[in-house]
Amino acid sequence: MKIGRILKILLIVVLVVLVLLYIGLPLASAIAVIAPDASASGQPPEGFTEVTLTADDGITLAAWYTPPQNGIAVVLIHGAGSGRSSMRPYAEMLHADGYGVLALDLRGFGESGGRINRLGWNGTRDVGAAVAFLNDQPDVNQIAGLGVSLGGEVLLGAVSTYPELAAIITDGATFRSVGEYQALPNNRSLVRNFTTGARDVFVALLSGDSPPAPPLWEAVTAAESARFLFITAGNDAAEIEFNTQFQTIVGDRGALWIVPNVGHTGGFNADPAAYRDRVITFYTDALGG
Prior knowledge:
Elements: H1 3-33, E1 49-54, E2 60-66, E3 72-77, H2 88-96, E4 100-104, H3 123-135, E5 142-148, H4 150-158, E6 165-171, H5 178-181, H6 190-207, H7 216-222, E7 227-233, H8 237-250, E8 254-259, H9 267-270, H10 272-287
Parallel strand pairs: 3-4, 3-5, 5-6, 6-7, 7-8
Antiparallel strand pairs: 1-2, 2-4
């Protein structure tokens, strides 16, 4: 085989790899972001009822609700993998300690209407619907939040828009868009962020959605009265880095719990009792009740 032919084959291979890496992979990720959710919520946990919320753009959202015994209601938001069905153990934990719980399906998930976006780009509207619902409940005096992964990012993004969110717990929150990804200095080079940026472009083209504003660090900075507990997996270095930054931004308004020897959002399953103690202690310190 001639040298020229070998070089041509190598060049073709390199080009194919580059196309797959920098176009194919982001496109596949974008398609996954808008892929429909087939999860079923099932029956509400004991003590909960089905309720329907309406966002300010008319989208209807399905939720479970139980009123508080202590005046505090928690907006409970799931991750990107499935809807509120995955949050059933968290809902039961909070309910057992007297907290009201509103566990919702974000738009496009479970029984909620609207178009799905697994990056949570429209999540602030959904949080607004939850806050409006709880503001109308006679037993609710204070509103808190607990979000897992995507749910945590959605709550952080909404906290400056809805100051009623007085105390927020996030478990595994990181970023929703390339702009937020670049909040970490190591992610600012084009080599590190090109794939994430290309994914965002494809998501915008395929869904018509825009990356959310304000970015997470601006939202938590502007929420001057809110208190935060950032939970992160001890086995996820990037997650630790993001959450350490969040805690640094909010200073003494925030606490960081690095759960040892667990992966993403693994703290609850690893030790439910310790998780419950951290959650309830934080809410008690932040809100009383």
